[in-house]
Each structure stands twice: as C-alpha cells, then as structure tokens.
Amino acid sequence: MWSVLDGNEAVAHVAHRLSEVIAIYPITPASYMGELADEWSMRGRTNLWGNVPEVVEMQSEAGAAGTLHGAVQGGALGTTFTASQGLLLMLPNMFKIAGELTPAVIHVAARTVATHALSIFGDHSDVMAARSTGFAILSGSSVQEAHDLAAVAHAATLRTRVPFLHFMDGFRTSHEISKIRTLSDDDLEALIDTDALLAHRLRRLTPDRPVLRGTAQNPDVFFQAREAANLFHEAVPSIVQSCFDEVAARTGRRYENVDYVGSPEAEHVLVLMGSACDTVEECVADLTERGRRVGMVRVRLFRPFPAAQLAAAIPPATRTVAALDRTKEPGAPGEPLYLDVVAALAAAGRGDVDVIGGRYGLSSKEFTPAMVKGVFDALERGTAPRPFTVGITDDVTHTSIVPDPDYTIDGGDVRAVFYGLGADGTVGACKSSAKIIGEETDLFPQAYFVYDSKKSGSVTVSHLRFGPHPIKAPYLVDRASFVACHQFSFLERLDVLREADVGATFLLNSPHGPEEVWDHLPREVQETIIEKRLSLHVIDALT
Asked: DSSP E strands: which ranges in 83-132?
C-alpha cells in the first residue's frame, strides 16, 4: 500500500515489526525512530509474531548497545537506533556482537561526528568510524530504499549470523517526507528464514544448556579464531543479494549490492553511496540523453565490500572513476570508499582506470546537479584536483571543483518554498500538506525542512515538491514556482525571493493590506518582484 512517511518512520515501521527487544537512547536525528517504537509498544502494537516489543530506554548510547548485546545473546531479536557520537559509544559492544557472530541490527541516521565543532547535521563520518567492527553495512539512498533495506538487514542478519548496520543520510533522508510502497506483514514474514530464526534461538545463553562464551584468549588461539569467521563474512554479499531478489519478486523493486546507471560506453563514472546517488542518477540520465558518455555506480552493500561486483559494474570503456565520500579522514591517502574502489579495480586488473577521490556534502552541505556536472566536466578536462572537494570554495588548499552555475534539473511539477519561524506552524503545515497531497491524490510529494540547531525561534525553510511521478531530487528547491513568507520582518534581512522562478507566485503574510503593502516592501524586494514578474498575494494570517 502507498504511505506518506519520512525516512525515520519508514525504518521504524520495519524495525518494530521484526524485533522483540528495542534498546533506545534519543539522539538527533535518529531519536524519532526510537520515539515511534516506544509509542507503538506503549499502545500495544505487536510485532510479526503477535508480541509487543519490549522497548528499553537507557541513560546512554553505550547502555543501549549493552542492552542490545545482552538481548541478542539471550536469543531475542534485537535492534537499536542511533547516530554520530551515539554510534561511537556503541563501538565496544559492536565489536563483541560481531565477533560472537550474533544476529542484530542497528539503524543509523548517519550524522557528522563532532570535530572542530558540533554539528547535528548529516554525513557519513559516524558510519565510517564503525567499518572495522565486523558489522555488515547497508546504505539506503531514499525513503523507499531505507524502508526496504531495513527489512533486508533484519532478514540477512539471521541468515548470515553477521550483525548489520543499516544507515540512511541524517536529515536528508531521515526527515524527508515521501510517498512510498510499504512492506506488508506477509512480505516481511516471507523474508524471515524460520530455520535461521530457530537456530538463533538455540544458540542463546541459558542455564539449561551451559556453553563457554566470551573467554579471554592468549596468542596461541586468538588469531586462528578471528580468521575462522571469514566464511561467514564472505557469504554476506550473496545472501544479501538473495534477500534483494526476494524483495523484487514480491514488490517489483529491484536492488543490487552494486548498481550501474548510465551509458554502457561511459568514459567517466562516479561511485558513491547515500541520498546523493539520486542526484547523480538524475544528472547521468540527462547528460547521456545529450550524448555525454557518463555513468554512476551506486553502492548499497558497503561491508563486506563487494569488490568483484563493483569492478564488473565499471564499463570497459571507462577511463576515469571519481569515488565520492561524504566524510573526511585527515592524514589518510584517501577516504574509505575511494580506497575500496582503488583496491577493487586493482584486484580486477583494471589498471586502465584512473581513480580520483573527492569529498562532498559534509554536515549536510548541499550537493546539487550543478555540482555533479561540474565534477563530470572536470573529469573530462582532466583538471580535477587530487583529491578534490565540491560544494565549497577551498581558497586554502585549492581542492575545489567549480559547479556549472547554469545547469539545473529540478524534479517535480510544483516546487514551493515556505519561510517561517521555528514553532510558528510553518513546518507542521507543510508536513500536513505533503501528507494530504500524497494520501488524497495520485500525486507524489516530497517535503524537506531546513532549520538550524537553535530549533524553536530560528528561521525555518520548508521545501515542497509534488508531481505525477516519484521525485528523486534530494537537494533544496532552487527554482520555486511558489514562495511563501510567513514573517513580514524577514523581508528586511533575508533574500526570501532568491529561489523564486520567473513568473512564480509570492504569498506574503502581511499586516498591510493589498492597497498599501507595496509601499512597505524593501526596495530590493520590489525590484525582484518586477524583474522576475512575480504574482504577489498578501494575507493577514495573524489577526
């Protein structure tokens, strides 16, 4: 069935139905998943087996991870939700859970780890810090993918005995509202291998069948025991792919560990994970229609890294690959995905491919079609710095690639931007609009909200798109057909008409009526209205 959800709710819908113990500690932006699970259990909502999942709220993320560890060792189906520093506090238990080959799932709304400053916004620095734990890592690039891959993570962890970290981009995906096809209980039940579930139950710690586990080991056996787990991890890619195939058979939505999109004769290819994949896919489709030989590889299974599949996905004609990482690893010869791509192509004997690393989107910095085209242009000219950045102007170490300012692809037939003040109802109204459009019509909405860490009292900007087809545009609206400003004072200090397209409608909440409002508008606003031929409408919504 169709549902209008954000990424957090899409994941929680799956996790709650496939879990028995849910350990939580709230952390932005993942806390909403835990809050939903807690609310549903309090209301008596049951899981797939007719039981109400036990939600345990701890006093830290380390405590939540410890609770998860204990639950899965006891044979329960366990999960938790986290991000950023919260994930880092879970690392010690994650090493243990993985080392003991115990099924478990951690859902992450991937977020910046605090370095020179704290940021509540999203990138991949937290999940990259967890890549050596032994957890398998799955990446969903949209609300629909986050929903489906959450189910795959729960199914695959039982079949492989390898715990899974399933992540989506914090805020960009976790808080984006979209219209998706949700998995039914029958779909989830079909994915769960009952024999694997029974085997998990039988491995539980119980005084009725004592086993020795969690010992201290000396050099004589530790190394051997670590290597003995190789077969379990090596089996993960094929088992994940089989889960993907089962999802496709039931829903028609086909996923691969590694997907290629673009020209079969592409000379220049981008490799990346997360929400930016939809932006690149959109641009690749447009550029190939114009005759450009470009492509994109979308990585869904990051650990264990499907090296052979990635190498096979790169077309034979490819000369340059740019691996884009949404993280920074100071002092390393390159970021994690870049190094994996280099190793994969080297192992496959693809010495003909030049691999360049790039960074983008740290702390939710925008990544737009103009930037994607700028990267492809630099690759074709051979002028891309090594490594490069895109989305900023680096006037210190000069790593920047310049976007193409004239290039744009803005998905959605209607594109609207709403300016409001935190807690004034603008965001809530926009969310309601998106749900009404998605649930009461055949149209597909996409809603995303920009607000800073000050929350209540700060400026909010709501971005709403909708149209007859699913929207793949995980970036802000830049050519709006409708702009609303709910605070008249913003006109003096914000360029609220910057995103307005020519001929757009401008709705202004104003204490001044239609006959007098023009004389109260700042001169710059008047000039923009005339230059862009905007249709101005005023309403007094406060009295």
From this structure: 105-110
CA distance 72 to 55: 14
How many other C-beta atoms are found inside a 10 Å radius of the C-beta of residue 282? 22
Are the CB atoms for 15 and 105 separated by under 8 Å? yes
Query: Token pair for residue 249?
Result: 């058979």
Using the structure block, give the residue that is written with the tokens 């695959």: 156
CB-count burial class (<10 Å; 0-12, 13-18, 19+) for 536: middle
The two three-digit tokens of residue 509, written as one number? 């909440």
Residue found by looking up tokens 């400026």 in the block: 459
- Residue range 367-405, pLDDT digits in tens: 999 999 999 999 999 999 999 999 999 999 999 999 999
Burial (CB < 10 A; 0-12, 13-18, 19+), residue 26, is middle
Q: Retrieve residue 172's tokens.
A: 């960009």
- pTM above threshold 0.85: yes
Which residues contact residue 31 at a Cβ distance below 8 angstroms, ignoring those fewer than 6 apart? 81
Alpha carbons 408 and 478: distance in angstroms, whole number:
9
Strand partners, 312: none
Phi, psi of 56 (to 5 degrees): -115, 115
Tell me: the pLDDT tens digits for 313-341?
Answer: 999 999 999 999 999 999 999 999 999 99
Given a contact cutoff of 8 angstroms between Cβ atoms, the answer to whether 11 and 168 are in contact is: yes
CA–CA separation, 290 and 300 (whole Å): 28
Instruction: Find all residues with CB under 8 Å of 95, minimum gap 6, and list them.
Output: 133, 134
539: DSSP letter: E
Asked whether 299 and 311 are in contact (CB, 8 A), the reply is no
